Amino acid sequence: MKGRDLIYFWLIIIVSFLGGIFLFDSNFDSYSDLITYLSIMIGFKIASLSILFSSPLRKKLWDANNVKPYKTELHRIKDYYKHSIIFEVVSIIVIFVFPNCLKVDFLFNFIHLGKQSVVLPILTGSAYCLLKICKDLFRIFTFPTND
Q1: Strand partners, 110
Q2: CA–CA separation, 67 and 64 (whole Å)
Q3: DSSP state, 56?
Q4: Of 112, 95, 115, 94, whose CA–CA distance to 103 is shortest?
Q5: pLDDT tens figures, 80-130
Q6: Distance between CA atoms of 83 and 59, rounded to whole angstroms?
Q7: What is the 8-class DSSP label of residue 47?
Q8: 69-91 burial, b for 16+ CB within 10 Å, e for fewer?
Q9: d(CA 35, CA 29)
Q10: Is there a contact between 140 and 61 (Cβ–Cβ < 8 Å)?
Q11: Mind listing the pLDDT tens digit for each residue in 32-74?
Q12: 0.85 exceeded by pTM
């Protein structure tokens, strides 16, 4: 993602991280469900990318070059897919690596950050990426293609 899309993405991640600190407590233990959800999302995106790559629509998207800051429509879709898949893979790694409890000293108060504080940013970031991809796919679905 580039430009405004990337700014919106990071704003969503930051706001949801701050909300996730207070929304989920330390008893949250559905990390395997979250990993399953992310794995399904990665599979969906790889399958849809392979279908798009083998379709005649790819040439039409390459020729459409009126999209800024991207070169063509195809470059924009590629960036959305790349950003989304990388975010979801990194999210799975963070779930495995992030400690269960981490004490952070903030203005002479301890804030207990744990693995549960990254659940909401992962869900909202993944939903935002899916929304951007689906919005573009539904928009290009109406492009006429002749084989």
Answers
A1: 105
A2: 8
A3: T
A4: 112
A5: 899 999 999 999 998 888 777 666 666 666 666 778 888 889 999 999 999
A6: 22
A7: H
A8: ebeebbbbbbbbbebbbebbeeb
A9: 12
A10: yes
A11: 888 999 999 999 899 988 887 877 777 777 776 666 777 777 8
A12: no
